[in-house]
Write a structure and sequence with these properties.
Strands 1-2 form a two-stranded antiparallel ribbon. 72% of the residues lie in helices and 1% in strands. The N and C termini lie far apart (91 Å). By secondary structure, the protein is mainly alpha-helical. Strand 1 (236-237) and strand 2 (240-241) form a beta hairpin. Helix 9 runs antiparallel to helix 10 (160-172).
Length: 474
């Protein structure tokens, strides 16, 4: 009977003293029943019950509670400022942990930390001042400040100041050495929830992208065994599929964001798609790959990337990265992408716009290469493959690629040779129109003439050239 009476339950809940641990226990009781949920909410909102906790939190912030001996100078008696000034970050961390339910304390501590750990700027700033701030950031990280900041953000999920201040701190604090992959997963999940809940706040999304970039790089480029096992949890944070969320953020701010923001988004997307691709290539990683694909819609991400290629034609750095990311996406889920030829067309447009930029050209060739390979692996019928190949012909792939190669023949020539001969060999294998084009345009002789002096013919591209010669000369 008691468990069905919210009033009776409230009296029982209030009989226990207000502590951090008690608040956490009560929050878990919300799921027991409607009566429990009502009683817990009323108890946590009761100023009478929370008064002791609030008083202790205020004493912690001020350090002028009963029994505290005042010392000179007076500034040292201001609790949080004293802890920051004397670099007592462990004590400050413990305060964030102990008074987690008290939003005022959390906001106060985070605000003071931001003021103290923000790099000073201005004409009077010396190198020593900047170095002091960097040293304090490292000390704060070593004290475990990142974890308790993330705890505060999760506990007070609807408190926007705590979310903003928490993100600012996480963005400026350095990673611990060695990198803690479990903490990385926890913070990535915290940031993901902030991003989803505050999709329209550009400045907050900007900070979140920087935090993710610092975390994901450890999973992409330094994959220790623990990191590899946790890849699905960094790709799908809780119930949030991170590549899909990043694509939503990009779409949300496409009309107003500058190219630097889009570049950071695309960088993260590329790292995530590379991780998914790696999982798909390992027999023991197939279960993890299937986990990472839950909720992933490749066609949606493809649309967003093509919008970037169309919307930022004057930014070569962004274009290069977006084309490479599109190629990574093709490797992950080519079968659910429906605008492959458009992707190549936008890449060719970028190549023309930037006068044969070599990195754009190489990215475009990698994109075409993976499309051709994936079309075979996904059993595209001959008609579909021919339609894509003929679209490339109509776009003017050969003349534009040849023009770009002429202008950069001495720069990374060998990779360009491998890619170009691979593409032509692969297409000419089953497409007589391309065979005729390559023969009539004397393409092989032109490529030989460009690369004869700078590339060793005994390298990896030679087998593709030999097969191409045999196909064209038949």
């Amino acid at each position: 009977m008691i468990q069905n009476s919210a009033d009776a339950l409230l009296c029982i809940l209030k009989a226990f003293p207000a502590t951090r641990e008690q608040v956490l226990r009560y929050r878990k009781l919300r799921s027991v029943s409607t009566a429990f949920c009502t009683a817990v909410d009323n108890c946590l909102l009761s100023q009478e019950w929370t008064a002791p906790l609030t008083t202790r939190a205020a004493e912690f912030c001020n350090d002028v509670g009963p029994g505290v001996t005042l010392v000179a100078p007076a500034a040292l008696n201001m609790g949080i400022h004293r802890m920051v000034t004397t670099k007592s970050f462990v004590e400050l961390r413990d305060g964030l942990h102990e008074f987690l339910p008290d939003a005022t304390t959390q906001e106060t501590i985070l605000r003071v930390l931001i003021l103290h750990l923000t790099t000073p700027i201005g004409p009077g700033v010396s190198i020593e001042m900047v170095n002091d701030v960097d040293e304090d950031r490292t000390t704060a990280t070593d004290a475990g400040m990142q974890r308790v900041i993330a705890d505060a953000m999760r506990f007070h999920a609807t408190n926007l100041p705590i979310q903003v201040e928490g993100c600012r701190l996480l963005a400026c604090l350095p990673e611990r050495e060695p990198f803690d992959v479990h903490l990385g997963v926890y913070i990535a999940g915290t940031v993901a929830a902030v991003m989803r809940r505050n999709l329209t706040l550009f400045s907050l999304q900007e900070m979140c992208m920087r935090i993710l970039d610092d975390i994901v790089v450890h999973f992409r480029y330094f994959p220790c065994e623990d990191a590899r096992m946790l890849l699905p949890r960094i790709i799908v944070a809780g119930d949030i599929h991170m590549p899909m969320l990043i694509a939503r953020v990009m779409q949300q701010h496409a009309a107003t964001a500058d190219w630097h923001f889009m570049y950071n988004c695309v960088r993260n997307l590329k790292k995530y798609s590379k991780m998914m691709d790696e999982l798909s290539r390992e027999d023991e990683g197939m279960t993890q790959f299937e986990e990472s694909m839950a909720g992933f819609v490749a066609g949606y991400v493809e649309d967003v990337l093509l919008d970037v290629l169309r919307g930022y034609p004057q930014e070569p750095v962004l274009l290069r990265f977006t084309i490479r990311t599109l190629a990574s996406l093709v490797n992950v889920d080519c079968g659910n992408m429906h605008r492959l030829a458009e992707g190549v067309q936008y890449a060719l447009n970028a190549l023309r716009e930037h006068n044969g930029d070599f990195e754009i050209m190489r990215g475009m060739m990698k994109l075409i290469k993976v499309i051709l390979i994936q079309m075979v692996e996904h059993d595209y019928d001959v008609q579909e493959r021919s339609a894509f190949q003929n679209a490339m012909m109509a776009m003017g792939f050969i003349p534009h690629s040849m023009a770009a190669l002429r202008s950069s023949v001495k720069t990374n020539s060998e990779p360009a040779c491998i890619l170009l001969f691979f593409i032509l060999d692969h297409i000419c294998e089953q497409n007589p129109l391309w065979v005729t084009l390559v023969r009539n345009e004397n393409v092989i002789a032109k490529i030989d003439g460009m690369f004869a002096q700078v590339v060793d013919k005994a390298r990896d591209w030679e087998p593709h050239r030999t097969r191409l010669v045999n196909r064209v000369m038949v």
